[in-house]
Write a structure and sequence with these properties.
Number of domains: 3
Number of strands: 26
Helix content: 25-40%
Low-confidence stretches: 567-574
Distance between the termini: 50 Å
Strand order of the largest sheet: 2-1-11-10-12-13-14-15-16
Strand content: 15-25%
CATH architecture of the largest domain: 3-Layer(aba) Sandwich
Largest sheet: 9 strands, mixed
Number of helices: 17
Radius of gyration: 24 Å
Structural class: alpha/beta
CATH class of the largest domain: Alpha Beta
CATH superfamily of the largest domain: ANL, N-terminal domain
Shape: globular
CATH topology of the largest domain: Rossmann fold
Mean pLDDT: 90
Length: 574
């Protein structure tokens, strides 16, 4: 390379600036100040509230200035515990405007876990919605920092009947008014500086704090717009919690295209369908359970236009895709983790797949797919020798990521960082195969593989089959101890009350599902045990992930003592 390409050509203020996603709102405010930025539906006969980009940008600036006036400095952590309301969008912009780090807390957490996150992050200020004041109040009793500033968000459009208890001396609207709407914020000093902190689901130990930087948030927010071909002024419905991986970076992506954020405090089918029809929603995200919620709704479904929906976790079965298609929903399947800013892999659709049968389309869509535009490396490899697996759709390896949308690391956890970021790759702990066309397909978490008589059995593969049966609503498979085989698959299901298993006894449901599995799985993969649970008995983390370690304990107890002990669905981990 010629030396002249580097010599006397330094970075200057004119040609280099740190990347940050908060610039998207500023640009849209400049270009389309009167475009609608947020819509929040009113409850109890309250009117719907609309806010323009001019107004939301001013509020974000006010928040930034108000925080700075209260002593929040560059690099300090500011926590928020809010539902999907405009204030949450303001937090995603106002907090990083002064170089502070946003910690979005899960609204379903218990006091002990909230306190852990506040202590571990050394949060200096907490903005909390008064709907959760009882839980947060109990958490504050466990917080080490007695100087923690608490700001109460009293939503005038709230749907909860009780006002809640004031926990701090400041109310959010008053707090905003103390700030300057013309506050001059600055780009981060370095795009590697932290923008957000998110705590992962902890099922056997304390949660890990994932630190994300401005550069990665900018790139994945832009990657969302490319992956989904987000149109100018898209209308996005917030059914995905904004606290979950920073809403998969969509608080910034939607602002990048000048779109509208339709905010919902609760994920309820009636409210979703009403919002879609009333506001001509074009896009939304959600787990497969959101699709089930929509399909099980018996009320009016009045929208006639097409809605694009992005979903993660387990792939939707063909029957679900077909029914969602009948309701004018087009599904995009993605995969990712908190450590990679949310979605980082997408089942990129090929036009020729449109001509396939619905069953064949579902098989294509069941795969997690290929890397996002802003992800430099995606590999399925043997973690011992780091050799990629062959593209045969059969050889299992660990999914690994590399590039600008991989986290900085885990907060105060150098040992885990060294292990999970070893050999130049982030080791996800997810196991997958690679198909001949290069699309990856998850098979299991490494800790959830069932080894039965020397055979490696994928619990995800069994779950995929059981999900396709019309009699099931929720499904999970875990290992149960077995004196002959070492361990065998055990299936835990909730029954679809609108399906063929409704009204059947547990033995009848087990017989039905066992026969179905025998027709659709290798004999060694057919579950030996079948347990029927109520919806609130399926053990889950507060982000909705089924806790397999709890299921394994339940199965072990059944095998050893002949009884199954259900546990509450709400766990005390993130």
């Amino acid at each position: 390379m010629q030396a002249s390409f580097n010599e006397l050509l330094p970075k200057t203020a004119a040609n280099h600036e740190a990347l940050t996603p908060i610039q998207f709102m500023e640009r849209t405010r400049y270009n389309f100040p009167d475009a609608i930025c947020t819509i929040q539906e009113g409850y109890h006969n309250q009117p719907t509230q609309y806010s323009t980009y001019r107004e939301e940008y001013a509020k974000s600036c006010q928040l930034a200035d108000a925080l700075q006036q209260r002593g929040i400095q560059y690099g300090d952590c500011v926590a928020v515990l809010l539902p999907n309301v405009p204030a949450m969008l303001e937090a995603h912009h106002g907090i990083p405007m002064i170089g502070a780090v946003l910690l979005s807390l899960n609204t379903r957490l218990d006091p002990k876990t909230i306190a852990f996150a506040l202590n571990h992050s050394e949060a200096k200020l907490l903005i909390t919605d008064m709907e959760f004041s009882e839980t947060v109040g109990a958490a504050l009793q466990l917080v080490d920092n007695q100087q923690l500033i608490v700001v109460d968000h009293d939503d005038p459009l709230r749907e909860f009947p009780n006002k809640g208890t004031r926990l701090g001396s400041l109310e959010y609207s008053d707090f905003l008014r103390s700030g300057n709407p013309d506050f001059k914020w600055s780009f981060p000093r370095d795009e590697w500086d932290a923008i957000a902190l998110n705590y992962t689901s902890g099922t056997t130990a304390d949660p890990k704090g994932v630190v994300l930087h401005h550069r990665g948030a900018f790139l994945n927010a832009a990657g969302n717009t490319m992956t989904w071909a987000l149109p100018k002024k898209a209308v996005y419905l917030w059914t995905l919690p904004m606290f979950h991986c920073n809403g998969w970076c969509f608080p910034w992506s939607i602002c990048a295209v000048g779109g509208t954020h339709v905010c919902l405090r609760k994920v309820q089918a009636e409210a979703i369908f009403k919002a879609i029809a009333d506001h001509r929603v074009t896009h939304m995200c959600g787990a497969p359970i959101v699709m089930q919620t929509l399909l099980n709704y018996t009320g009016p479904k009045t929208h006639t236009h097409s809605v694009s929906m992005m979903t993660a976790a387990s792939a939707p079965p063909a029957a679900i895709l077909e029914k969602m298609g009948e309701l004018n929903f087009r599904i995009t399947h993605v995969y990712g983790l908190t450590e990679v800013y949310g979605p980082a892999v997408v089942c990129e659709w090929h036009d020729e797949w449109d001509g396939l049968s619905m069953e064949a389309q579902a098989e294509k869509n069941a795969r997690q797919g290929v890397r996002y535009p802003m992800l430099e490396g995606l590999m399925v490899a043997d973690p011992e020798n780091m050799k990629p697996v062959p593209h045969d759709g059969e050889t299992i390896g660990e999914v690994m990521f590399r590039g600008n949308i991989v986290m900085k690391g885990y907060l105060k956890n150098p040992k885990t960082n060294a292990k999970d970021l070893a050999n130049g790759w982030f080791h996800s702990g997810d196991l997958a195969v690679v198909h001949p066309d290069g699309y990856i397909m998850l098979k299991d978490r490494s800790k959830d593989i069932i080894i039965s008589g020397g055979e490696n059995i994928s619990s995800l593969e069994i779950e995929s089959v059981l999900h396709k049966h019309p009699g099931t609503l929720d499904v999970a498979v875990a290992a149960a101890p077995d004196p002959k085989w070492g361990e065998v698959p055990a299936a835990f299901v909730t029954v679809n009350e609108a399906g063929p298993c409704a009204g059947q006894t547990t033995d009848q449901v087990a017989a039905t599902l066992k026969a179905y599995c025998r027709e659709n799985l290798p004999h060694f993969s057919v579950p030996k045990h079948y347990f029927v649970l109520k919806l609130d008995e399926m053990p889950k983390t507060s982000t909705g992930k089924i806790t397999k370690n709890t299921l394994r304990a339940m199965a072990k107890n059944y095998v050893e003592q002949g009884q199954l002990k259900p546990v509450a669905a709400t766990q005390s981990k993130l």
